[in-house]
Write a structure and sequence with these properties.
The protein is mainly alpha-helical and about 325 residues long. It has 14 helices and two strands, in the order αααββααααααααααα. Strands 1-2 form a two-stranded antiparallel ribbon. Helix 5 packs antiparallel against helix 7 (about 165-190) and helix 6 (about 135-155) packs across helix 7 (about 165-190). The model has no long low-confidence stretch (mean pLDDT about 85).
Length: about 325
Amino acid sequence: MTSETGVHDATMAEQLKRRNRPFERVIVGSLFISGAISIAVTIGILWELGSESLLFFREDEVSLGKFFTSTVWQPQAGEFGIWPLILGTLLITVIALLVAVPIGLSAAIYLSEYASPRVRGFFKPVLEILVGIPTVVFGFFAITFMTPLLRSIFGESVVGFFNVLSAGIVVGLLIVPLISSLAEDAMAAVPNSLRQAAYGLGASRLEVSLRVVVPAALSGIAAGIVIGMSRAVGETMVVTLASGAAPRNFDLAADPVFGYVLNPFQGAQTMTGYIAITASGDISYDTIDYNSIFAIGLTLFLMTLGLNSLSRRIVKRYRQEYD
């Protein structure tokens, strides 16, 4: 009887497999086309950035080695060192992560481990509303609220009107929903059996959250943080409005690292800020200023690609599967 049932099930499975399903083929084909389009768009972006960047590096004033080693960015003087723009980008990104990671993880732990389903269903969409707010609004919030607040606390002589700290704090608030949402989803995927086992051993809710749930969801949390970092690196409007348009040129031999170079109270231009300001100005096609936009864009693209690859490696390295 068992063998006959097995043969019947195998026959039915074979018939279902061979059945003509045109609608399913359409879905599979559309999914394949969508994936192919995304890959083609990525290749097209990389090709355009690379070809235009090649025109930039062919200029007599530009040297590939100096581009990645010089700490002075002054196009008017023929100085094209990328590090001042990278410095501004990294300063704002670090400040943003210092703001977003504690707030985002705290919100994720509360929503996952403490909030009731009703409270979670209300607060999670409210938190994610921040993602839909235009970034230009965050930029004006930085210069009209955050900067005056910082200047009232530390003094107007200390904090410049355009400063890295204000931009970094607001960018951090901008990426809080991204980190908290991904972290909360990772925590929600942790089996309840782990929590119940910890409670059975006498652990408190806080101990279960920090010592059981967070380590079990580490891959998802780390991936969320790296993705939030990529979002902060690529932010444009907030840094353009709040951090200023003057690159922070420096000389490590002459400037104190913890003085001028890393001073968060003064302005610094970022890679995206330079691209936005230069592209919106009156520049001619195929000039050195025009081509420099693509060189910086290619550098930014490679940085973001590296962060996304790091995110995938972290997920693969620390991923845990539960039955």
